[in-house]
Amino acid sequence: MSQAVLETDTAPSQRMDLLRFATAGSVDDGKSTLIGRLLFDTKSLFSDQLEAVEAVSAARGDEYTNLALLTDGLRAEREQGITIDVAYRYFATPRRKFIIADTPGHIQYTRNMVTGASTADLALILVDARKGLVEQSRRHAFLTSLLRVPHLVLCVNKMDLVGWDKAVYDKIADEFTSFAAKLEITDLTIIPVSALNGDNIASRSENSPWYEGPSLLHHLEHVHIASDRNLVDVRFPVQYVIRPQSTTVTDYRGYAGQVASGVLKPGDEVMVLPSGLHSTIAAIDTADGPVAEAFPPMSVTVRLADEIDISRGDMICRPHNAPAVAQDIEAMVCWMDETAPLRVGGKYAIKHTTRTARTVVRGLQYRLDVNTLHRDENAGELQLNEIGRIKLRTTVPLLADEYRRNRTTGGFILIDESTNRTVAAGMIIEAQ
Amino acid sequence: MSQAGHYRVSHLDALEAESIFVMREVMAEFERPVLLFSGGKDSIVMLRLAEKAFAPARIPFPVMHIDTGHNFPEVLEFRDSRVATLGLNLVIASVQEAIDTGLVRELPDGTRNRIQTPVLLNAVEKYRFDALFGGARRDEEKARAKERVFSFRDEFGQWDPKNQRPELWSLYNGRHHPGESIRVFPLSNWTELDVWHYIARERIPLPSIYYAHDREVVERDGMFYAVNEFIRLRDGEVSETRTVRYRTVGDASQTAAVLSDADTVEKVIEEVAATRITERGATRGDDKVSEAAMEDRKREGYF
């Protein structure tokens, strides 16, 4: 960690946009080194943090400053040398602010990878050039596609240890590309790097003249994410009804929420679900005044021209473009509870957009082996970190889209009603 | 979708929208939320976000100050004026009162950061608060980097880092049994610099001590402490007048100032963008106790 190679000004401004990415891999892949390198090269690593890590590293007798300690924040993690939980890290360049969800890579932490990927615009997977693709790389690629992370980057790391051999890189790249083709991965970028030496991290390396693509940071700064948002299907889950009890503001009734997708404008004809009643948008308010349009991820307050009964959990959409009003749901779920498995017949609370209902598991069609993609149709339950396709029946209708079309109105969580634990993440395949 | 450029959202807009969503979610799902308001910059920003989340209605919950009794007068004054302007209900949980009634015992070194925790938990129980908004950010400290936006606390107010609920998409699970509560951190994804950019953009007033001013200070362990009723000169120490500002505001007996000429928000932004030391590292004596000082305090129920 010596030279800072980023040549541009690193002072972030107010005009940046935001990119969230999830990293997956184990310490052995050099993931922590890579993150440390990104933070260091963008001047986001502070000297007191570095000193603290150096001190702990020295006390443990590490031969080099172990940058994994930067992200391993908890006592148990430091003591056991493992990463338990998703850690969030932040850095910025003049173009973008980045939020890293740093997830541990071990098999038992599928839960964490799913959690980190759920909000990610991009997933970054590392492989060790000497080892090539391993089971874990394929699992991470599969989870990226399952969670519909729009962009995937594969960093072939430790290229310095294979002499920057293009053939090694090509073999891994080819193998990964053909595996990714079986998954629904829309945007794949593969970069040869040495995280330890900073090659192709903040700037292009002279060690890989055969590589014509961008450095990792350049790619992160420029990958086009604006079109990832769904600006077509108007979905506005009503979160909270604002009705001031005040003498100065009277007769105000606004529906507060965050735009899940689509563009809303005053004058638009809308339909409210589940009632199916129609109205017109009278105004879209924010604390800073009314706006001419609202789009994701804006938090706004919508007022309608007609007085109709609307409450939390309802959805404002367009008359000819509405989500399903559905009590029978088919979905992929990742089971996240270590205390009890998912069983057919099990009853849970389900939280979907701003709506909470109860649900019963009607069927488990198959359990998916995330390494081989084999479907076990005889599985009777899902244990912690297992993924399967299930059928649910809910007490009240959900206003749902397919997850592949809409990550906000297609995702849900299941909650154990006795322990209150979040026990599953679900991605809707079909709702009727 | 060539129109996407038109629908550009800056990082501050995205952070603001997320924080507002979180606050509305709490208001919709909890009985008795409260916002922890210290008069520090993060809680001031949080209060502004609460104004925005519920406008044109008033902020629909009270604010609570865990008052260590070790305050900067400028900050208390600011707190009271904000509360009055916004027409808020202010609950004060006093550490001094808790010492006087025997709930907590003064520590030998006289610092009160750590003994805030029982006072906080006592107030939560007394007022039956079920959701507490805190201004903590994940970039502040490594234990906080693993904190959830909705952070479950058991009936003893304890944080169990190994047993946190997975947090997916923007589906927050705030369910809890009576006596348990949720700490909610709407600024989780903000950095110190984001907070300052937002303060500049929104023209949010702050207590004057956040900007450069002359103050009588004493240098101790490389940090500059104000000489006042809480910090007295020890033998051999000499005080001097320096131009300083505060990067954080905590227990006045433990919070240090930094040397700075930044007397405007723009200059502070420049300074923060260039600094090489974290804000807690630069200003908090309490975090230097051990590698896991923050984690330990959080486990006990600290903010």
Key terms:
heterodimer, A: alpha+beta, Rossmann fold, Elongation Factor Tu (Ef-tu), domain 3, 3 domains, 8-stranded antiparallel beta sheet, 6-stranded mixed beta sheet, 8 helices, 23 strands, 19% helix, disordered N terminus, B: 303 residues, alpha/beta, 2 domains, globular
Structure overview:
The complex is a heterodimer of chains A (432) and B (303). By secondary structure, chain A is α+β, with helices and mostly antiparallel strands. Chain A folds into 3 domains: 17-228, Rossmann fold, CATH 3.40.50.300; 236-317, Translation factors (Elongation Factor Tu (Ef-tu), domain 3, Beta Barrel), CATH 2.40.30.10; 324-431, Translation factors (Elongation Factor Tu (Ef-tu), domain 3), CATH 2.40.30.10. Chain A is built from 8 helices and 23 strands. Chain A has helices at 31-41, 47-60, 68-71, 75-80, 110-118, 135-146, 166-182, 216-222; strands at residues 17-25, 87-92, 96-104, 122-128, 151-157, 187-192, 236-237, 240-242, 254-258, 269-273, 277-286, 289-290, 299-304, 315-317, 324-335, 342-343, 347-352, 355-368, 375-376, 381-382, 387-400, 411-415, 422-431. In chain A, the strands form 4 sheets. In chain A, strands 7, 8, 9, 10, 11, 12, 13 and 14 form an 8-stranded antiparallel sheet that branches. In chain A, a hairpin with a 3-residue loop joins β10 and β11. The radius of gyration of chain A is 24 Å and the shape is globular. The termini of chain A are far apart. Mean pLDDT of chain A is 90; it is low at 1-12. In chain B, α1 packs across α2 (41-54) and α6 packs antiparallel against α7. Chain B has 2 domains: 9-193 and 292-300, HUPs (Rossmann fold, 3-Layer(aba) Sandwich), CATH 3.40.50; 209-288, no CATH class. Chain B is globular. Helices cover 33% and strands 15% of the residues of chain B. The longest helix of chain B is centred in the first third of the chain and has 19 residues, at 11-29. Chain B is an alpha/beta fold. At the A-B interface, α2, α4, β2, β3 and α5 of A face α1, α2, α6 and α7 of B.
